[in-house]
Amino acid sequence: TVLGCCLKDQQRLPEAEAALMESVRLIEQNEGSAYSLAYAEMDLGVVIADQCRFDEAAPHFERAREEFLRCGMHYEANLVNREEADALQRESERAHDAEKNALLVEALSLAVRAAVDADERRFQFPASDARMRWIQRVAEPSRELALSLAADAQDPGLVSELVASWRTSGVVSPSSGLERARGGDPGRPPH
Q1: Rounded to whole angstroms, what are the CA distances from 51 to 6, 11, 24, 55, 65?
Q2: pLDDT by residue for the chain (191 residues), tens digit each?
Q3: What is the CA radius of gyration of the chain?
Q4: Cys bridge to 82: 20, 58, 114, 139, which one at CB 3.0-4.6 A?
Q5: For 74, how many CA atoms within 13 A lie in the half-sphere containing its CB?
């Protein structure tokens, strides 16, 4: 799986696909862990979608999601949702009206679930600087995808609801979050 991901990062997609297919085969043959299989399937789905073969990618995303859920790995299942939503958004750019709308609705459903889950998970971190890193690295990209899809779907009501819910979700600026993590409150002078 590591080789496939390295090849993917180098944009050597056909080679990455072959390496990931071999990973899936070996994991199944050797009765490897369900989460290893899920990661390999998700990465394979991404590589296939990156080659604009979205219909072929869908079963890999579905299998990855099922395996993650079987392991109780709900966050990872929502990573699959985000990756699939991104692939569907790219597919919608090539589609015509009715098909485009159906793809956007499906992508939006996946993306909103992933974004809400990522936002809620920030509270698993006890320190605010760790929460800020989570927001910047995971929650914000998920939010941006959901907002982009809502805009593509021409749903201003949903855009407004998403912005309003995330604006009131308790996100603070990185500088104030770091100050509080160090024991200081930027609104008060130090004792």
Answers
A1: 16, 10, 19, 11, 21
A2: 789 989 999 999 999 999 999 999 999 999 989 989 999 999 999 999 999 999 999 999 999 999 999 999 998 999 999 999 999 999 999 999 889 999 999 999 999 999 999 888 888 888 888 888 888 888 889 999 999 999 999 999 998 888 888 766 554 333 333 333 334 333 333 33
A3: 19
A4: 114
A5: 7
**Which residues, in sequence order, are CB contacts of 163 under 8 Å at separation 6+?**
147
Q: Two tokens at 167?
A: 């604006």
Query: What is each CA distance from 59 to 22, 31, 36, 53, 149, in whole angstroms?
Result: 17, 20, 17, 12, 22
Burial environment of residue 49 by CB neighbours within 10 A (0 to 12, 13 to 18, 19 or more): buried
User: What pLDDT was estimated at residue 168?
Assistant: 60
The residue length of the chain stands at 191
Q: Within the chain, where are the H helices?
A: 2-9, 13-29, 34-50, 54-70, 74-92, 97-120, 128-134, 140-152, 156-167, 174-181
Q: Which two three-digit tokens encode residue 156? A: 């201003």
Centre a 10 Å sphere on the Cβ of residue 141 and count the other Cβ atoms it contains.
16
CB 78 within 8 A of CB 111: no
In order of 19, 122, 132, 155, the CA distances from 180 in angstroms are: 46, 16, 12, 37
